[in-house]
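thought: fold this chain, then report.
action: predict
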Amino acid sequence: MEKMFRGVQGVTFKRGHLDEPEPPATLHEPDDMLIVAPPCHPWEPVKVPEEAVSRVYCLICGEPFAT
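observation:
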């Protein structure tokens, strides 16, 4: 790498070891929704609020289905 950037104006190359980045915080997802699998694409479920009364649509094809 150093040879590649030698002579390129505005670019500096510094030898060394990069520090490991801090691991990201674990994600927390509240358990306040129902997971509903559409009949047309069951591998792509939809999460809806438990109190939902409106129609739910498939994320892939848009086909409406009941919860």
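thought: worth noting. Residues 33-67 form one domain.
final: tokens above.
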